[in-house]
Amino acid sequence: MSQLGQPVRAGRQQQQSSNEYDEGGFTFRPATKEQAKARIAIQGVSGSGKTWTSLALANGLSGGKRFAVIDTERGAASKYVGINGIQFDVLQMQRFDPRDLVKALAAAAQAGYEVVLVDSLSHYWKGTDGALDQVEKHKGKYGNNSFAGWKDVTPMQNDMIDALLSYPGHVVVTMRSHTEWVLQENERGRKEPVAMGMRAEQRKGVEYEFDVVGAMDVTNTLKILKSRCPALHNQTLERPDGDTDIAKPLLEWLNDGAEPIDPTAWVDAATAADATADSLLATYREAEAHGALATPFLHPASGEPTNLGDFIKERGTALKNAA
Predict the structure, then answer these.
(1) Residue 8 domain-assigned?
(2) Do the domain assignments include residue 307?
(3) Residue 173 belongs to a domain
(4) Which of 151, 148, 152, 153 lies closest to 132 in space, CA to CA?
């Protein structure tokens, strides 16, 4: 297990107080490139091949090991089991409360899956009990004001995105695209209607959260819309192999850097029997500096989903009050 370094603090030392976790100084550190985990989104219209491409991609990222699929598409992913040797474990979701995705990610992290695929993220926006449904449910206490209903739902959405980005492994999500039909000239010179994928069915701007975003069309062509990985920048791939065409160059880029601290080191430190209020605060600061406070895991006492930052605060406060 990775060893935790000593936290770097700035400014004068402050006596611990009830809100000590929110009183940390702002510390600049030398920038370093660390190895990282993939954060990928593939969107597309119905029949574009986003599920199969994402499965092959997840298989490549996992090195052929079993990975986790959180399935909202009524078993669509399972129809591909065994093709090209792909094997995975699936969790079928029947309701799409954003908080349920946080729970599913925490369970996947607890089980140790190195790769998780969410097929698809769109249901957590406009599916049953998704974010839009939640607004309808919450607006009643604000005089049926839908805009005010977002006061309760935006934190759910933000927590879901944080859980995806902080997952201690590779994350691939699919998203449905808003479909519009346009007339295009075919090879015979005749106009015919073609389904075109427009914006993804998720919160506007969600693409900013991912390292690589691609859009697939009905010809199974993948257009990379955004990529922090230079090898994939602005690429157009016809009937791509998710393993060799996407996972391989992506892993070469992700693995180029210093070895990062394993997030489980912070989880182990936070749950250690001999942890103290001071050691937990130090662990919090170190995880905070590495952007790992939202790392999802299951609460060791209740079994309910939580995140690293909230658990450390809870336990640290309890130990301090008991002293």
Answers:
(1) no
(2) yes
(3) yes
(4) 153
